[in-house]
Each structure stands twice: as C-alpha cells, then as structure tokens.
Design goal:
single chain, 129 residues, mainly alpha, 0% strand, elongated, Pants/Emi1-like, Synaptic plasticity regulator PANTS
C-alpha cells in the first residue's frame, strides 16, 4: 500500500525533482527515432527507456496523489542520474584537464576578431534604432 500524506517538512533531496513534463520529454526523446539514432551512434544499441518511464510514473503519482514512496523513488532516480553524469565527466579522457589558465588568456583580440566584434555591435545598434 502506498504511503500518502501531506509532507509538512522538506524531504531530503526533494530539490532534485524536475517538473513531470521534463520526464515526459526525456521519455519521448528516448523512444523517438532521433533518440534511437543517437543511442545507436553513441552506444551501438538501443538504450532501455524503462527507467525514464518509471521516473515519469513516480512523478505523476507524487504530483497527483502525494505518494511519498514515489517521491523517494524519484529522488533515488535523480541521485543516480547525477552520479552517472558526474562519472561520465570525470572519466572523459578526450580533453586534457588544466590546472591553470593559458598564459595568454587575456591577450588582446586579433584584428579580424576586433573588426567582427565592431560590425556585430553596429548591427545591433541598427536593429535598436
């Protein structure tokens, strides 16, 4: 039986929850042809969309019925999602990580870049007039 109640205090991690519409969009993308194409390109196979569908289900139960068990499962889903994103970033070996900025990070712009920036500025002024 589900645990329904009015949640008076903040449940730890509740701030992680996104609007249910975002879970729906994520699921639609996962199941759509473009999402499937990206999955095939990135992983060589289709990704299981069931966890996203479950997250949407839990979000709707939380939103409509204030089901605390669904809220807790949704928080676990979001925590797991954030851990996977962080690990993917940390394990990315494509780019060399820097400990300090390049020595010329604040050097003046080259002439071609200055002219381009000026022309963009003039274009913006003309639009506002």
């Amino acid at each position: 039986m589900s645990n329904t109640s009015d949640v008076k205090g903040e449940i730890s991690g509740q701030w992680l929850i996104r609007p249910c519409e975002e879970y729906h969009e994520e699921l639609s993308h996962c199941r759509g042809w473009l999402g499937r194409l990206q999955q095939r390109y990135m992983f060589g196979e289709k990704t299981d969309c069931a966890p996203i569908a479950e997250a949407l289900h839990h979000c709707m139960f939380w939103l409509q019925r204030k089901d605390v068990d669904s809220l807790k499962k949704l928080i676990l889903y979001e925590e797991d999602r954030l851990i996977h994103r962080k690990l993917a970033s940390e394990n990315n070996d494509v780019w060399q990580k820097r400990s300090k900025p390049p020595s010329d990070w604040n050097a003046p712009l080259p002439d071609w870049a200055k002219k381009r920036a000026e022309s963009i500025g003039k274009h913006q002024e003309q639009k506002q007039s």
